């Protein structure tokens, strides 16, 4: 009798992360974090949109990581056809929701579904959903550009983090924690999306601040981070990031209970992780007619 492959996470998760998948997720996250912070660790000459020429290579580097994640899940039995179907449906929903806000004043209608789906279906599913949602929405809205790989990774971390929240919450406490998490990741997303381009622009000054807030090549990491925090506070925190936080909070508080109930009902019906069983049909043989 063969022993089933070990998997981590609670029963019923759409994607149960096994040891090999966990290693791939950690490596992908570490590589993605280095994509954001490496300019702070080396001497880089500022240049407008320096990521533009190397963005295709970054994108080509990200896609194999995502493919490896999916293949690892499939090989360990962590993602079946039902999970793939749910992934396709939710990715399409997010791709359709995103143009409703289009990022105007920070209004983003894609993250609250990502948070709720990651909560219900688990960290592995949330990671993959974040990548596929942003990729699909970029194709739909013609938003493909050098920023897309960074958006995909940031959204993947948001979905994965939602799946790692404490499981013993329910009712109003669960909604409150998810709303707080939505606020936190709204500002974190803005922080990361500023970090990817800030070291590569020149003249990053604002008229209402007298200090220097541009990246200085070769300066200590702490000094550059201090200037970056000031840059983020002055350019995006009070506007775009706060708008995103308000959108997430309102959507989770108003729609969260109904969406969570719907997703959990779908998860129970799909019975993720349970092998299909087939009951043979009983057939009645014709009675012999005596001669």
Question: Short summary of the structure?
Answer:
With 291 residues, the protein is mainly alpha-helical. The protein is 65% helix and 0% strand. The N terminus is likely disordered.
Approximate strand percentage: under 5%
What is the chain-wise order of helices and strands? HHHHHHHH
> Average pLDDT value?
76
Please state the CA-atom Rg, rounded to the nearest Å.
23 Å
* End-to-end gap: 51 Å
Q: Please give the share of residues in helix.
A: 55-70%
Structural class: mainly alpha
- Total count of helical runs of at least 4 residues: 8
How would you describe the overall organization of this protein?
The protein is an all-alpha fold and 291 residues long. The chain is 65% helix and 0% strand. It contains 8 helices and no strands. The chain has helices at residues 19-41, 51-75, 81-101, 111-121, 123-141, 148-163, 171-195, 221-270. The longest helix is centred in the C-terminal third of the chain and has 50 residues, at 221-270.
